[in-house]
Design brief:
mainly alpha, 16 helices
Length: 407
């Protein structure tokens, strides 16, 4: 009879998860199914199996949580790395108009629906509103690429709006994590002075982190890349870049931000260097290894007992998620891109995945006072449905209204 040590079983379970995740990604891509939904289901099945067989010890869950943290870092690092700051600045005016309507309307709609229609407490309602501002445009981009429309004026505008959306959602998340404990503490009578002190401290830390990023970008990034390229035998430079990204993410965490914020800005720092973007293809292996664990971790956090009670909140929040993006993006886009562009862009912004689930995941870790189990499961449902519907609708719309690449 075989006897497994705890460490041996952890290695076996994680190894099996990696193999299944890679296979699952391949199968999902073959049938044009979003892999992240498959990863969430994998985590949920692992959760059910572990609960039924009593094999998920605290030590094993800590291993998955650590891998999920690494997944968060590579996800946000890639978001920053793929950002085009020069292109964003060039289309800042039309993009910012649409972005403002998107953030304000989606966030307010999410909060109002949760607090006034569903009678959710104020702190979870704020988390819902913040999560609703986020977008997973990567889900929609696949449809634009298949239609050869990603380089069209409307496709480039969509990318710029999505980049602003990602950055603002991470900033809102940072602010939310700072004020949520204050709201829980019942500072209603003296909330504004406490918020003022918190804001000043947060701004001071942001200045310190910003100075570090600027100094690194101007004086350290290019010499470091040259040093990496001269090393013999040459390692993969992107692995070095990713290692530096992990360090910057850790520095952000030490300053009181999250690793997500640090990873995003680390990616932005390297995005200005064409060499870094050019070798991004070599980052894919690292990305595809760690990123699934973030979504697997989401599935592990779903309480099976909460699913029944999450159905109705999930349906309400799904309607709010769709309407919020359609109206919040569509109305401002009418003035800049016309009605066809407004429809295409607003539908493309409907999916919620990485950052929305990151906000809810971090809130769930704080406890039921921040994100109850039913609300967490409801947002997972919203993520799954929006990630399935939006690409299907976009494929039809882009066939109906073909978009030509910009000259």
């Amino acid at each position: 009879m075989l006897v497994f040590k705890e460490v041996t079983f952890e290695v076996l379970l994680v190894g099996a998860t990696i193999v299944i995740a890679i296979t699952l990604r391949h199968l999902c891509r073959k049938i044009n199914f979003p892999p992240i939904i498959g990863f969430i289901f994998l985590g949920f099945i692992l959760n059910l199996t572990g609960t039924f067989l009593n094999i998920l010890s605290e030590e094993i869950l800590e291993v998955y949580e650590f891998l999920a943290q690494l997944g968060i870092i590579v996800l946000l690092f890639r978001v920053g790395l793929e950002s085009n700051l020069k292109g964003l600045i060039r289309q800042l005016r039309p993009a910012s108009i649409i972005w403002a309507g998107n953030i304000v309307f989606s966030g307010i709609a999410g909060f109002v629906a949760a607090y006034y229609m569903m009678n959710v407490d104020i702190i979870p309602s704020i988390f819902i509103g913040t999560a609703m501002t986020a977008t997973s445009v990567g889900i929609s981009i696949s449809a634009w690429r298949e239609a050869h429309a990603i380089k069209s004026p409307k496709g480039e505008l969509l990318i710029d709006i999505a980049e602003m959306d990602d950055i603002s959602a991470v900033v809102l998340m940072t602010i939310l994590f700072s004020i949520a404990p204050l709201l829980k503490g019942g500072y209603q009578a003296s909330l504004f002075p406490v918020l003022g002190k918190t804001a000043v401290l947060l701004c001071a830390k942001a200045v310190i982190f910003g100075i570090f990023c600027i100094v690194f970008s101007r004086y350290a990034e290019k010499p470091m890349m040259k040093f990496f390229s001269r090393m013999k035998p040459a390692p993969d430079p992107m692995l070095m870049v990713a290692g530096v990204g992990f360090i910057i993410a850790a520095i952000a965490e030490l300053l009181g931000f999250s690793v997500a914020v640090g990873a995003l800005f680390a990616g932005l720092l390297f995005s200005r260097d064409p060499k870094s973007v050019k070798i991004d293809a070599s980052f894919n292996s690292l990305y595809e290894f760690f990123a699934p664990f973030f979504f697997i971790g989401i599935g592990l956090m779903i309480d099976p007992n909460s699913l029944t009670g999450a159905a109705m909140p999930g349906f309400v929040l799904l309607l709010v998620a769709i309407i919020g993006k359609l109206v919040g993006n569509g109305l401002p886009a009418l003035y800049t891109t016309g009605w066809t562009g407004a429809v295409l862009i607003s539908v493309s912004m409907v999916p919620r995945a990485e950052i929305a689930m990151l906000i809810m995941q971090q809130g769930r870790k704080m406890g039921d006072w921040a994100v109850p189990a039913q609300i967490f499961s409801a947002i997972v449902m919203v993520s799954i449905v929006t990630c399935l519907l939006a690409p299907l609708i976009l494929q039809y719309l882009l066939r109906l209204w073909p978009q030509e690449a910009a000259s």
